[in-house]
């Protein structure tokens, strides 16, 4: 099984969950949060599991309580392109739900994840009745557009090595490190290459260069930043 419904506990109820402070749900009242909590489903996903697929119609949105996922799209040549890495706290699936279009992206778990599924009718009702929630949604959409534009600029103006450095810094800043100092999010070399917009072989060569320069070290898929200053200087 890719995921299963969990029994809701008092700690995971929306009105008691601190994760909502990281996303649009912070605009909701306690009563609205209670209504959401009564209607939602809590899911556990294993690493590699599919949350939703490109071209499918979504019946709600997903709030990421823990773990991380990748949002990707298949290009005309059939190759996967990773558009975004989603850390905990984000709500995904909003654009397709509000536009009433099928999903433009696929979402897959990069780590084991805890996710709350909020039905479509609850979100639509909040948009109609809570102006503050609608405003938070607009702010988030604007931020997503800004970040997308920034990524396009990085792809056009920065070298592949600089994009790799940016990505490693983003991973460490957003996911932290484990007890051995390795970035807590580990991805395949294929996924890392897709994120920075290069071939897998080129990505592997650049990682080897950073290792040779003693800026990073690696263990299987895991990466440890040894010289943070040097990585930032890139």
What is the gist of this entry?
With 234 residues, the chain is α+β, with helices and mostly antiparallel strands. The chain has 8 helices and 11 strands.
Which structural category fits the helices and strands?
Answer: alpha+beta
What sequence of helices (H) and strands (E) makes up the elements?
EHEEEEEEHEEHHHHHEEH
End-to-end separation: 43 Å
What's the alpha carbon Rg, rounded to whole Å? Answer: 19 Å
Poorly predicted regions: 1-7
Query: Can you list the strand order of the major beta sheet?
Result: 1-2-9-4-7
Descriptive overview:
- The protein is an alpha+beta fold.
- The protein has 8 helices and 11 strands.
- The chain has helices spanning 30-39, 94-99, 120-129, 131-157, 160-175, 189-196, 200-212, 228-233, and strands spanning 3-5, 41-45, 50-52, 60-66, 69-74, 80-86, 91-92, 106-109, 113-119, 216-219, 222-225.
- α5 (160-175) packs across α6 (189-196).
- The longest helix has 27 residues, at 131-157.
- It is globular.
- The relative contact order is 0.12.
- The model is unreliable at 1-7 (pLDDT under 50).
């Amino acid at each position: 099984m890719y995921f299963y419904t969990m029994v809701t506990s008092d700690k995971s109820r929306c009105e008691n969950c601190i994760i909502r402070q990281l996303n649009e749900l912070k605009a909701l009242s306690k009563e609205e949060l209670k209504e959401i909590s009564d209607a939602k489903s809590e899911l556990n996903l294993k690493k590699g599991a599919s949350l939703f697929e490109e071209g499918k119609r979504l019946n709600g949105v997903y709030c990421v309580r823990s773990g991380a996922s990748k949002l990707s799209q298949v290009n005309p040549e059939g190759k996967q392109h990773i558009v975004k890495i989603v850390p905990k706290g984000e709500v995904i699936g909003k654009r397709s739900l509000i536009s009433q279009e099928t999903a433009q992206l696929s979402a897959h778990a990069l780590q084991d994840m805890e996710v709350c599924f909020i039905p479509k009718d609850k979100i639509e009702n909040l948009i109609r009745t809570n102006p503050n929630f609608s405003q938070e949604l607009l702010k988030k959409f604007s931020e997503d557009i800004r970040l997308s534009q920034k990524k396009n600029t990085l792809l056009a103006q920065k070298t592949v090595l600089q994009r790799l450095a940016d990505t490693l810094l983003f991973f460490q800043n957003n996911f932290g490190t484990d007890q051995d100092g390795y970035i807590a999010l580990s991805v395949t070399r294929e996924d890392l290459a897709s994120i920075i917009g290069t071939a897998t072989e080129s990505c592997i060569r650049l990682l080897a260069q950073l290792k040779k320069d003693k800026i990073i070290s690696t263990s299987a898929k895991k990466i440890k930043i040894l010289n943070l200053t040097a990585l930032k200087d890139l």
